[in-house]
Amino acid sequence: MFARCRPLSCSFVLALAMVAGTVEARTVYRCERDGTVSLSTAPEPGSRCEPREVADDAVSLPNLWGALGIVKGTLYERIEDGRPVYGTRPLPGSKRVLGFTVQTPPPPPSAPTPAADSAPARLDRYPAQFRAAARRAGVDEALVRAVAHAESGFDPVAVSPKGALGVMQLMPATARELGVQDPFAPAQSIDGGARHLRQLLRRYGGNLELVAAAYNAGVGAVTRHGGVPPYAETREYIRRVLALHARYRAALSAAGG
After folding, report:
1. What pLDDT shows up at residue 25?
2. HSE on the CB side for 72, CA within 13 Å?
3. How many structural domains is the chain composed of?
């Protein structure tokens, strides 16, 4: 079934084209449910789905999976409103069409960020908001500040390539779950981020490595890998957050906080 795909480069779109018989510009939906990601040609019932446009000449998809390396999956077909819909999640009534293997592309290069061990603590950024949010959530203010520093550098209008927003870089779905109405409002973002950290601290029994891993890669990735995911980005993120956490604890202590 994969004769037309180069080894380890057959994308979901090309796999779909092999079944549908055409390659054309199309919308692919990236759907999340219970910490797992699937791709589909239509929104999945019961999942949170976001449309992504894919060019008609695309050889491979951008990295919609949220994982690095080789991803193996299965393409399923179901009938919806009298027409076939293809996706990678085995929904009720679907049938298996074919299996595929995808080598996810590397993330795009980004501007270098200051090394964690040379980044000074920024106690001047939103001091009242961090103090109040940490107290309400019952979490370490130094940890909330460290995550904000690592995530956005305290930029209230930051938007990541993956769609994370604001000071605490909350994903839209996470912001909705936390009741954050405006993720670009610093007070709301910091409050939501502090409450999200409280949830993660409870889930992982205070293990800061797992908390940072889940904040960066998602709870689903930590669950699938039984601990810290083997992503270079996530491992560097953990190192940076832990270094910044120690720096903010020392700075707050020296400032009498």
Report:
1. 41
2. 1
3. 2
